[in-house]
Every structure is written in structure tokens, then in C-alpha cells.
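ESCALATION

Customer reports they have been waiting on this structure for their group meeting. Please prioritize. Original submission:
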Amino acid sequence: MDQLAAMTTFVRVVEAGSLSGAARAAHASLTSVSRQIAALEAHYSAQLLLRTTRRLALTDAGRLLYERAKTVLSEVREIETALLSNQQELTGRLRVSAPSLMGRLLLAPLLPAFLRRHPQLSLDLLLLDRPVDLIAEDIHVALRIGRLPDSQLMTRRLGELTMIVCAAPEYLRAYGEPQSPRELAGHDCLVFSDAPGAGDWRFRNADGGEGKVRVSCRLWINSLDALVPAAKEGLGIVRVPSWQVKDAIQAGELRRILTAYELPPTPVQLVFPPARLGAPKTRALVDHVAACWSALD
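Update from on-call: job pushed to the front of the queue and completed.
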């Protein structure tokens, strides 16, 4: 069995919705298509398709093979394109995911220069505040914050993220500067979270461990970049990534407080499946972002 050919046929069957549709698309006989699907099922010792007189559906094994086969065939096409063009020009489409705020403010501005450098490339940027399954969702590169669990993903470290607490000098003159996280209960706090209401902010304890403090909520918004202007106006105390308010602190619009209780920085990195490491377009994007990435602090 030519496994790549059989996988190509399988993908065509799924996308056409029938064996006969795949046969027409490939200008092949229905018998040939049926034999390739049967050979795949025998090879994997699993039923891949559920066939009825009216419809065709994937089994769990078939769904897994379909997602993996699309990725494998895409990589094969990229290798062929790179070899045939002597790697002079990158082509195809890249799918990238990132957390909404960091993706919008830090990653997206780096992409126009990359696309100008590679005019035959297209790029999808998905801003998602949830973990993505790179294989199942066909993501080439993802921006991740935090220490990663053990996995087979490749990583490229970009920098670090530090969450800090700050407020406008005007607010601190009027209400005083808290000297410990517990004193935040008596202050107006500007809270970002998934759900409205009081927020829990994490700090370093005196013993070096980590603890949570419930803060009062004068203003809740589910967008960090919308809270910063309110903090500058003296409405209250906010907890944000240091890079987001770096300029405001340098300009004296905000003052960093409770620095002794800040948690250690969290790594920021690009992750990508090992199979994509050798793909020229993936390697080019990772190298570009790493070279352009500014210090987060």
C-alpha cells in the first residue's frame, strides 16, 4: 500500500462526503478508492468510516486519522514546494494562535514585516484566551504564557511576563499607598477577570510561597487594556502585565506598588509541533518573532 496515496484518498473521501465523490475528484475508479480505504482500515486495524445508503460518517479512529492526515499531507506539500523552488520563496498558509491582549498588542504588529518579506505566504492569527490543541486545530505556532507541562511540543523562549500592581499618583495621594496585599481590601480596585464581581489577586507570601488576596472591585472589565485608562484617571488600583504600563510608569502617570510581593516572572514562548520544525515557513516565522520580540519588562 502507498500510505501517502491512501491517506490522500481518505481525506478526499471525507471532504467529498462519499467514495464516489472522491473518485470523481481524483479521476479514479470507485473500486480503486474503496480498495485504498479498505487497505487503510486493515493497516490500522480500525474502522475509519461508517457507511449507510444516505450518508458517510467518521468513527473516532477515522476522525483522528483525518486530522493527522491533513497535517501530514500539508507538510509533504510544503517540502515539495520548497525543494522544487530551491527554497527561494516560501508559500502556503500559516495558522498562529495567541492570547487576545498579548496577541493584539505585541504579536500582531510584528506580522506585516514578515508578510512583506514573504509575499507568497498567507497567515491566520487566532486570538483565543484558551489553550489550543495544535494538532487537532491545525495550528502551526502558538504563543503561550506560563510553564508548559511535559509534552512533545517544541518551544522557543521569547521573554518573561511580570504581573505588577500600580495606581496613579493622584489616587495614592488621596487614599494612601497600601503596604501589604491585605490592605487592598480597603482600596478601590480595578479588576479584570472572566466573571464580574470581586477579584482574587495572587502575591508572594513572606515565606516565598504564593497566596491569594480577595480585593474589592470598584470597576470590573473583561479587558485589561480598558482598565489601564481608568487607573491613569485615578479611579483605583490595577494589576496588569508590566509591559502594558511600562510607558505610563516612565511618564509618571502610574506608580508601581507592592513590589516586594510580586510573583516571579512567567515565561513567554512560542510552541509548535515537532513535525513542523523543519517546515521552512514555520521556522521563518519563529525566527522572525524571536528576533523582533521586545523585552516585556
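Sent to customer with the following note: The longest strand covers residues 154-161.
Escalation resolved.
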